[in-house]
Amino acid sequence: MFALKKLLGTLLMPLPLGLGLLTLGLLLIAFGRRWRGWLALLMGWLMLAAASNRGIALALTSSLENTYSTTTTSSAFAYVAVLGGGHGDNPDLPAGQRLSASARARLIEGIRLALLQPAARLIVSGPKNEPEDDFPSHARVLADAAVELGFPRERIVELDSARDTAEETLALARLAKGKPVALVTSAWHLPRAMKLAQSAGLTALPCPSDYLGGREPRIPTRAWLNWSAEALEDSTRAWREYLGQLWAWSVRALLGPPIPGQSPLDKPASVTLSDTP
């Protein structure tokens, strides 16, 4: 199921889907199916043009990011959980510089919230990029980056075996045992994460970070006349979230909700860094 989800998620993104339609169109024209070929070419071109338009990208991301408001400081929570956002494995770089832009933004917000609640533990999540390599997990890189920024290592807990958001929320529910968790992730990813948290039985406080479209109060007129690779990337993120929500709804409809607090992983999903070398 996990591999199928990743495969479909890759193939149904705007760039591979648009390129696939363009390729199909050329093949149909080559084999004499001219009107079908031109239709496929038109659909592929329209998909790529729409996905790379800055105005459309801002509209798609803003629709997700406006679901939850910025986190207030009055809420009480026992844990601050930073969901994984990707990293590189270059050992010559400091941990903070190995993080992706999304992971760095999530971690900064997680540290900010954890500093407001001195009794709260900071949970960082994410597996290795390749299970068989000797590089540290994403959770360890996040933890090391937090320590580089002055956060005490003894307050950090790692979740290093959850492979995606669904497994992260299940592992968090098992760890938190009903206690409130400040769930920190990208604002455009938060609606899906909160749905999965609810399904897992996790008492989660939505904490958005890493804004894309939501940084602007409204979409500027010039954005509709701008096309870029950055807009294509942002549209792809939003499209992945919508597909992820559809996938989660489909799996829940077919298989029912998971057992709250039960992780599907065989090995322990959390490690307290203060207990590790």
Structural summary, described in words:
By secondary structure, the protein is of the alpha/beta class. The protein has a domain of 155 residues: Rossmann fold. 50% of the residues lie in helices and 10% in strands. The protein is built from ten helices and six strands, in the order H-H-H-H-E-H-H-E-H-E-H-E-H-E-H-E. The protein has a six-stranded mixed beta sheet, with helices on both faces. Helix 9 links the parallel strand 4 and strand 5. Helix 2 runs antiparallel to helix 3 and helix 9 packs parallel to helix 10. The longest helix has 27 residues. The protein is elongated, with a radius of gyration of 20 Å. The C terminus is likely disordered.
Separation of the first and last Cα atoms: 35 Å
**CATH topology type of the domain at 76-212 and 258-275:** Rossmann fold
| Helix content, binned percent | 40-55%
Strand order of the largest sheet: 5-4-1-2-3-6
Largest sheet: 6 strands, mixed
Shape: elongated
> What's the architecture of the domain at 76-212 and 258-275 in CATH terms?
3-Layer(aba) Sandwich
Number of helices: 10
Low-confidence stretches: 259-277
Per CATH, the class of the domain at 76-212 and 258-275 reads Alpha Beta
Task: Provide the residue-averaged pLDDT.
Answer: 87
Structural class: alpha/beta
Q: How many DSSP-defined strands?
A: 6
Order of helices and strands: HHHHEHHEHEHEHEHE
Outline the fold blueprint.
Elements: H1 2-11, H2 14-30, H3 34-51, H4 54-65, E1 79-82, H5 95-98, H6 101-116, E2 121-125, H7 138-148, E3 156-159, H8 165-176, E4 181-186, H9 190-200, E5 204-209, H10 229-255, E6 271-272
Parallel strand pairs: 1-2, 1-4, 2-3, 4-5
Antiparallel strand pairs: 3-6
Helix pairs in contact: 2-3, 4-10, 8-9, 9-10
